[in-house]
Specification:
Elements: H1 15-19, H2 41-48, E1 52-57, E2 62-65, H3 67-73, H4 77-80, H5 94-106, E3 112-120, E4 126-136, E5 141-148, H6 150-205, H7 210-235, H8 238-255, E6 260-264, H9 271-292, E7 297-304, E8 307-314, H10 325-336, E9 340-345, E10 351-358
Parallel strand pairs: 6-7
Antiparallel strand pairs: 1-2, 1-5, 3-4, 4-5, 7-8, 8-10, 9-10
Length: 361
């Protein structure tokens, strides 16, 4: 079964458009210059072209389509005879495309170049086409060549979604930092200031509690310093900024409850590459500690042919979901640098988190 073509929207084309369609021969006849013949050069080009080629009348009805059109959309030409091309257009694109077509065939518009719209295939799926069209006014025909740009449109949509996720993640991180500062170090510093003022007053008045107040203020200041250090570590650790990726992995390994082998053999890299590599390792080791049930983990990093390859492997239970929010965030970070993330996690066979990042020469 396949979707039945809807009643022709050609009837709603403008009257001015329809007048151009009167009394012309159909292109199925052998004497038409636009009817490709098996032995003709034009016919060979028409049949062998990878792009979709379609000829319609000023009334929008199909006159001819090439094999690439039939293969891509799934409609044999026999099903399209006497139908309007608008019947294949996605419903949301029909109004503006109909208006554009009417203007074009009336001569109110000079060209239809690079027009992108959706079509509904015979199996119900939707594809994006980019088309260029030319009017043949003396024959009342429109000749169009279209290219399937579905993959590019999907990639553009994924890129936009990835950028939106990166922006959202950055906003969340900023809010977290503000919240942690407000609830932690800032509150302690305010307490410290108040306590120091009380201690000063106690000293001025000769009260006995000044030493206790000073000890309390010092304690709060020390706690605030520790919280600020921890907050800074959550952004980028000093081990990374001072010692590079190997030192940062060593620090992460020391904090991971699972034994971690540090096999990072790279020197200093750009700040962006080092930070992204660090977050890959940090997220992977966090997942290992929380979910893997592993007895051993290994972090490997090498540069080969201008690409930094990072592998974080464990011998845990496997079955990790590659679409978790943490891993999606890593994929977005990597994509921003032209890198990619790969997850291999077979149930009972451990997990491999692999990342490749281009390294500028």
């Amino acid at each position: 079964m396949h979707p039945r073509l809807t009643p022709s929207p050609a009837a709603s084309l403008s009257a001015g458009t329809a007048r151009h369609a009167r009394a012309r021969p159909r292109l199925m006849s052998s004497d038409s210059a636009f009817a490709p013949q098996p032995q003709s050069e034009l016919g060979d080009v028409f049949d062998l072209a990878h792009d979709l080629i379609v000829i319609v009348g000023f009334d929008g009805r199909f006159e001819r389509v090439n094999p690439a059109f039939e293969r891509t959309l799934g409609y044999p030409f026999s099903e399209l005879l006497s139908r309007s091309f608008l019947e294949l257009i996605h419903p949301d694109d029909i109004p503006w495309l109909r208006h554009l077509f009417d203007e074009f065939v009336r001569g109110d518009r000079d060209d239809m170049i690079g027009i992108e719209h959706r079509v509904v295939c015979r199996d119900g799926s939707v594809r994006w086409l980019q088309s260029n069209s030319r009017v043949i006014p003396e024959r009342g025909l429109v000749f169009a060549v279209a290219r399937d740009v579905t993959d590019r449109r999907l990639a553009d949509a994924e890129l936009a979604a990835s950028r939106a996720r990166i922006v959202a993640a950055a906003d969340d991180e900023r809010r977290r930092v503000v919240r942690d500062l407000h609830d932690g170090a800032q509150a302690r510093l305010v307490h410290t200031i108040i306590t120091l003022k009380l201690a000063r007053r106690a000293v001025e008045n000769g009260a006995d509690d000044a030493p206790d107040l000073l000890r309390e203020a010092l304690d709060n200041a020390e706690r605030a310093k520790a919280e600020l250090r921890e907050l800074a570590h959550g952004i980028l650790p000093a081990a990374l900024t001072r010692g590079g990726l190997h030192a940062a992995v060593e620090m992460l390994a020391s904090r991971t409850p699972v034994p971690v082998e540090n096999d990072v053999s790279v020197g200093r890299l750009s700040a962006a590459v080092e930070a992204t590599a660090y977050f890959v390792v940090a997220e992977a080791l966090t997942n290992i500690a929380k979910h893997a049930g592993a007895r051993h983990a290994e972090v490997m990093a090498r540069i080969t042919d201008g690409t930094l390859s990072i592998h974080v492997r464990d011998d845990g239970i496997g079955g990790a979901a590659p679409d978790g929010s943490g891993l999606i965030g890593l994929a977005d970070r990597l994509a921003a640098l032209g890198g990619r993330l790969r997850v291999e996690s077979r149930a009972g066979g451990g997990t491999l988190i692999a990342a490749d990042i281009p390294v500028p020469a």
